[in-house]
Design brief:
21 strands, four-stranded antiparallel beta sheet, 2 domains, alpha+beta, globular, 9 helices
């Protein structure tokens, strides 16, 4: 399958599939995986049918690319270990006490992993572990997606194609994109102390204004050295693609971004709004901890750690600083 991948425009150097991910054949040499644009398949173009991954006609792939992708996506020898991990997680979540399951589903949006149809929950969970941010939305990336996630892993380079390159001591890990402790758990089922904390998806009405907060972490723009979410204002509704709540490396950044975007949008008392959103997020994880208190077990312990990591990251929101103005507001914009 690797040779066919190369024949279709991909590149693989110094890498081989391992039991749970990708390994570097020679740690003294750099690794490389380059995926051509034509093999980056948007998740929305994928359908699950009889526990198989198939492509919609809207995917727009040529017949050779379509045939390769569908064979690759359903290759048992490549994906069995990952599917077994997801299946174990889904079954463990399904066996949690009812009050914990309700907290996960209602407060934290994990209903898809807790549905009664465990087969579909496994396939849905497997897709989430495999997708990566790409132009136009999440995509499945052949070969590269076999690498396991790690916050310190190789960072994907996005251009005409998508690639990872660099050195790996043994296993090749990839940092697929911005994550926080909870989103990493939701995708990969593990507890990792991520740098940042982002808001859960929510709709909050404060006064006469409705705030819609998404989790599209790939949708943002640069303002100087800072990255800010996309924002839209429509009458009494403000929509944010995502919202940073805490950042260990730059604690002054979260409040500063929100204050700047809201002020530019004509929202009064942005600090009060931000504090209420932070409080709402923190309370959801506190409620999870309260529901976990009477119980023990590996998944219970993992969830406790995830909640603690998330609350710790949220607490890294102190002070404020200036954020560069939007390009249209720049003094040189009208020149």
């Amino acid at each position: 399958m690797t040779e066919e991948f190369r024949a279709l425009g991909g590149a693989v150097k110094n890498i081989a599939p391992g039991e749970h991910g990708l390994i570097a054949i020679d740690p003294a040499e750099p690794v490389l995986v380059r995926v051509p644009h034509g093999l980056l398949v948007r998740t929305e173009d994928i359908v699950l049918e009889d526990q198989k991954i198939l492509l919609r006609e809207s995917a727009g792939l040529s017949d050779p690319l379509r045939r390769f992708f569908e064979r690759y996506a359903n290759a048992v020898n490549l994906h069995a270990a990952r599917e077994a991990e997801v299946a174990s997680r889904v079954m463990t979540l399904a066996a949690l006490p009812d009050n914990v399951r309700q907290a996960l589903a209602n407060d934290l949006g994990l209903a898809a992993l807790l549905q009664d149809d465990t087969g579909r929950a496994i396939q849905s969970g497997l897709l989430k572990t495999r997708q990566i941010a790409w132009q136009g939305g999440p995509a499945i990336v052949p070969i590269m997606e076999l690498a396991r996630y790690d916050p310190e892993g190789l960072r994907p380079e996005r251009g005409t194609n998508l690639q990872i390159q660099g050195y790996a001591a043994k296993e090749v890990f990839v940092r697929y994109g911005p994550q926080d402790a909870f989103s990493a758990f939701r995708r990969f089922g593990c507890a990792l102390p991520e740098t940042a904390a982002f808001s859960l998806p929510s709709t909050v009405t404060i006064g006469q204004v409705q705030f819609d907060i998404g989790v599209n972490l790939g949708e943002g723009t640069r303002r100087g050295n800072d990255r800010v979410p996309t924002i839209a204002r429509d009458a009494d509704k403000v929509s944010l693609s995502y919202l940073l709540l805490g950042d260990r490396r730059s604690p002054a950044l979260p409040r500063s971004i929100f204050r700047t975007l809201m002020t530019e949008s004509g929202i009064n008392n942005p600090d009060e709004v931000f504090d209420l959103i932070v409080r709402s997020n923190a309370l959801r994880f506190i409620r999870l901890l309260q529901n976990l208190e009477p119980y023990e077990g590996e998944m219970i312990s993992t969830l406790r750690t995830v909640a603690r990591y998330q609350l710790e990251a949220i607490s890294h929101c102190v002070g404020s600083r200036k954020i560069a103005p939007a390009p249209s507001a720049s003094p040189n914009a009208a020149a």
